[in-house]
Write a structure and sequence with these properties.
Chain lengths: 108, 112
């Protein structure tokens, strides 16, 4: 059974701090890794994707991939209240496998 | 404006009824997907289609049916055999050369 695990949270972070979201996956053959943000009642929207080991930065967001340890993380710098949402991790060896998401709350 | 549309936004079903959820995309994407999301849960794959006139069952296909007669359209029918259909239904699409999925706004189905 291919699995993607995320801590359901909620993860509470003060405004302006760094939020760190983690995801582990079971299939070593996984090639592509995605982070989606989902606001309550809305559909998921793609934030970042990463294919290679290491860090990938896009504005305030950094995705980190460690294939040897089978985890991928998302860092959000200078957290804003508008970052409060559920963050879904998705991994694909072939079809996308989704984690259940981590609820992030940014406290003003 | 390219994107994915789903209709209706809200749908109410009586016990024993079949209902059809619409999904249309103008992104020229080959692959389309239907997911179900229950409160506090992740996405579960119902059906997917990578090419017109072909589709495959996902993890929870029982009680659902789909068709793919046109590249742009991938309707989902929730049949009376689906005993607990109340959920948020999401349609997504992607190009075959890509893995990133783009989502429609969703349809919230409630059984009365």
């Amino acid at each position: 059974q291919k699995e993607v695990e995320q801590n359901s949270g909620p993860l509470s972070v003060p405004e302006g701090a760094i939020a760190s979201l983690n995801c582990t996956y079971s299939d070593r053959g996984s090639q592509s890794f995605f982070w989606y943000r989902q606001y309550s009642g809305k559909s998921p929207e793609l934030i970042m994707f990463i294919y290679s080991n290491g860090d990938k930065e896009d504005g305030r967001f950094t995705a980190q991939l460690n294939k040897a340890s089978q985890y991928v993380s998302l860092l959000i710098r200078d957290s804003q209240p508008s970052d409060s949402a559920t963050y879904l991790c998705a991994v694909t060896p072939d079809q996308l496998i989704w984690g259940a998401g981590t609820k992030l709350i940014i406290k003003p | 404006d390219g994107g994915i549309t789903q209709s209706p936004k809200y749908l109410f079903r009586k016990e024993g009824q079949n209902v059809t959820l619409s999904c249309e995309q103008n992104l020229n994407h080959d692959a389309m997907y239907w997911y179900r999301q229950d409160p506090g849960q992740g996405l579960r794959l119902i059906y997917y289609s990578q090419i017109v006139n072909d589709f495959q069952k996902g993890d929870i296909a029982e009680g659902y049916s789909v068709s793919r007669e046109k590249k742009e359209s991938f309707p989902l029918t929730v049949t009376s055999a689906q005993k607990n259909p109340t959920a948020f239904y999401l349609c997504a699409s992607t190009g075959l050369a890509d893995n990133e999925q783009f989502f429609g706004p969703g349809t919230r189905l409630t059984v009365l």
